[in-house]
Design a protein that fits this description.
By secondary structure, this protein is of the alpha+beta class. The protein has one domain: Alpha-Beta Complex (Aldehyde Oxidoreductase, domain 3), CATH 3.90.1170.40. The protein has three helices and nine strands. The strands form two sheets. Strands 3, 4, 6, 8 and 9 form a five-stranded antiparallel beta sheet that branches. Strands 1-5-7-2 form a four-stranded mixed beta sheet, with helices on both faces. Strand 3 and strand 4 form a beta hairpin. The protein is elongated, with a radius of gyration of 16 Å.
């Protein structure tokens, strides 16, 4: 199994639009270098939908408290590394105003084997959705706004 906080990772909270696959490739090139002991890379890329709870959504504003968010995301990665032999992780999450089809989140996990990479990636994403302190405010097509009380089901 991994050893929690000793496993390399990068966690970025960004306010601008990002290209998830470019960031993943750039991080892999920088942090993995000549390593050849990983055999699997699993990622999840989340994008903003233009609907929620039966309403058309024009944009979403994501807020967070940086120190709390970074602490929670590191704890989630530590938990995943205790469960699976993860070799490296990358989490990128947007804050600020986001529009439909823009990337919100990237979670990437590297491991020697696919099961650990898949399981670790899903665990991190689900924990992030349900535990990380992000607050979402949607701007609806009717001109009003609402805070999102619950995250959508992970199904």
């Amino acid at each position: 199994m991994g050893v929690g906080s000793t496993v390399p990772r990068k966690i970025l909270i960004v306010e601008e639009s990002f290209d998830p696959l470019w960031l993943q490739g750039d991080y892999e090139a920088d942090s993995m270098g000549d390593k050849t002991d990983y055999g699997a890379t699993a990622n999840f890329i989340g994008t903003m939908r233009d609907f929620n709870e039966g309403d058309d959504v024009l944009s979403m504003t994501l807020e967070h408290y940086p120190a709390m968010t970074n602490k929670q995301l590191n704890e989630i990665v530590d938990q995943a590394c205790e469960k699976w032999p993860i070799q490296n992780t990358l989490i990128v999450h947007r804050v600020g105003e986001i529009f439909p089809a823009e990337s919100i989140v990237l979670v990437t996990v590297w491991s020697a084997h696919r099961n650990a990479a898949f399981d670790g990636c899903r665990f991190i994403m689900e924990a992030l959705k349900h535990q990380a302190p992000f607050w979402k405010k949607e701007s609806l097509s009717e001109g009003n706004t609402r805070w999102v009380a619950e995250n959508t089901d992970g199904g």
